[in-house]
Please model this.
Amino acid sequence: MTTEMLAAPEGVQTEFETGSGTGEWKPICWVAEIPVLGARRVARAKGMDVAVFRNDQDQVFALLDRCPHKGGPLSQGIVFGTSVACPLHNWTIGLDTGCAQAPDEGCAQPFRLRVDNGQVFLDRRELATLAIDLVAPMAGPARQTVTHP
Amino acid sequence: MTKKMKLVMVGNGMAGVRTLEELLKLDPDLYRISVFGAEPHPNYNRILLSPVLAGEQSMDEIVLNSWDWYSDNGITLHAGKRVTEVDRVRRVVRSEDGTEESYDRLLLCTGSNPLMLPVPGKDLQGVIAYRDIADTNTMIDAANRYKHAVVIGGGLLGLEAANGLMRRGMQVTVIHVGPWLMERQLDEVAGKLLQKSLEERGLTFLMGAQTQELVGNPSGRVRSVHCKDGSKVDADLVVMAVGIRPNTELAEKMRLQINRGIVVNDTMQTATDPRIYSVGECAAHRGVAYGLVAPLFEQAKVAANHLAQMGIGRYQGSLTSTKLKVTGIDLFSAGQFMGGDGTEEIIMSDPFGGVYKRLVIKDDKLVGACLYGDTVDGSWYFKLLRDGRSVADIRDKLMFGESNIGDVGHEGHNKAATMPDEAEVCGCNGVRKGTICRVIREKGLFTLEEVRKHTKASSSCGSCTGLVEQLLMFTAGADYSATPKLKAMCACTDFGHQAVRDAIVENKLLTIADVFKVMLWKTPNGCASCRPAVNYYLISSWPKEARDDPQSRFVNERSHANIQKDGTYSVIPRMWGGETTAAELRRIADAVDKYKIPTVKVTGGQRIDLLGVKKEDLAGVWKDIGMPSGHAYAKALRTVKTCVGSEWCRMGTQDSTQMGKDLERAMWRMYAPHKVKFAVSGCPRNCAEAGIKDVGIIGVDSGWEMYIAGNGGIKTEVAHFFTKLKTAAEVLEYTGAFCQLYREEGWYLERTVHYVARVGLDHVRKRILEDHEGRKALWEKLQFSLDGEPDPWFEHDKAAVDQRQFTKLEVA
Model:
């Protein structure tokens, strides 16, 4: 669950993380493709989307796109400092840990992320395995017809 | 690593410890902290001594910071050690037993001492003040062994002591020198109602009586109290509650400047020595030493801010109000409740029902209030008093309280004490009374803001604020209604909305970054509440110059659709004046099929809502239905509701549909501090419900009536009649001018109803009805702002709609 600084000045190489147990790093996008103080959604083969955030210091973070409160899509929130405000009920979620600011409680699943030469990578194994069982909240008539596991 | 600075606090009470808590939140590692406290206890809630005395709470329940709290935070606590000396040159604190600590910063929180009447016998056994745990224990002990108690002083503290002793089974007489009880907080009528109510509970009063002597028995214990008028009262216990005085003994010894307390500046530093801070009852700020919790906590916040070397906060004094903590007695007073030169009074008196209210008005402003028996509107009156806004327009309704002007959501409850624990207090967030009280107790909460954070109660629509404040009162004893004179925009700044907007206009600031720089924002890029506000002030103050920042807009205004609980969106196209065509309906129907949109609903504003649209489909839906954005997601002009009017209706006097369409076409795409809704009715039957809209137009035979600042939401408020107009062109001009005035003067997220309430209807009349040039200029300014404003559903680039949001990144 690391989040790393983007190698901001050009030409400066960031260190590759090569710790054991690390799966393969999947290229996701360029940092420049994420709006400053914004986010992009990353679709996964299974499970809910992962949100990748960028703040004004060009730090990049990855969290499951699901607020621990009522499942709101964090990718749609307002980003400030190292936090995002959930668009549904305005909980403040720390981008580095995924955890809600006290007194609210709960954490969104964080994902390991690496930035190399302006490119964003996520851990393939984490993408395939983390928080696969979590589902998006339901609304509308679908709520009555679908039964939850 | 640099060595930590040393902070020593003298006095282990509520204001001081709150300062430490605030400081630890800001910078936990800046200081090595030591605390000296004269009492052998950790910090406890002094205000709750009365409920402890009355047997309603236990001593354990009122501890605010346990012993563990001090050690967990690395604080050295010298409990039970009174500080007797401070050497300001060597910067060393010394206590009675010789313990020494050196300091880089010193925080003096020595609180206050009770006054003792200098009468013979004051040193007898059984004669005490009422100030701390030791006094409370003495009283509880006496109640177990003796029969007769006398309390000298019929003020707040004295009555709470008397009530507590009576609840513990003693026969209590209150001797009060004044003509009625609590004469500094209550007027005569309320004071006498209070006395009657307390007499019914079993207290005895000697009013206008002066204590002459306390007489003891041979073993040295007090036996009776003799008054100057010759009356004598049996007493095994005498509690003196005649007032408190800031405890400045140590400060005097340190040769700090004293004037009604330790003199401090706006950053809570002592006037004499900037290394030394003082907060709490011992500190005199601008000549006032406060004795209530809320102002002291404000001081704590400022002192902590400064100690943490952030140096931005300033304490600017507080307005305070009074409540009595005697269960079952509701009273409230604030401001100049006794009246005075040039004041008028509105009085409601129902002695049989035990309700009395007195409102004091001067120059059309509420300047004082005294409430007995029904205090739910205390906080509302207090707000009016603090804001100093004109009450001329609501004068006739003022006495009946805020709920009388249309509050909903809490079943009309107005007495929190009588509500059962399972009753819902906050209808928005489903919070019950029992939950609120439990959380207040468990987390040691004191302020409305804290309760909102922890329970969410009253944090949404706010209509139950009065009830929550009452619960705070009963549970924590907090005098919550003391509030800062100026409300900051959010935690990122000390400036309020007006100051920020003024700076933007005066200095021609064009970017959020500039605003944050000039206004010394405390956070690098604000937060989710200040950024949208600042963005709005920029684009409304400098149209076509300041650039809209989509990342500082709430998701709905970034996606141009309304986010739903499952993360999908709703799409509401604009239907001019609520009219549509077969072609439009076909396109809508086709889009519903094509994008499998689960719900189609007719809105209250005569439009069609497509619910459950996936974000990826938004742009396709907009394009397919080919109708303009309805801005149903934005702080902007939303619907213009119309009736069919004279075109069809046999009663219609004016073509309201056309008028509505013209208004809508002239003003759509208009961003505003909050959403704006219009309605146009063709006759006074008012089928378009124009009476609860921001601007309501009602056709009459001779022209149009214009109503403003109505609201159909939380606070159902009927719009004010504004003016009568002859032509459709005038309706456009006056409506546009009013909207522009609101755009320029309304604070972000302030609906027109609250805006007009704040500035007063007279102000709006002057600007729109009396100043003809000004009105025309406002209307022109609005037209200038709207000219060329893009439709975000079709002109994505011009409206700065980031296309990237509509596509997901795929993992290769």
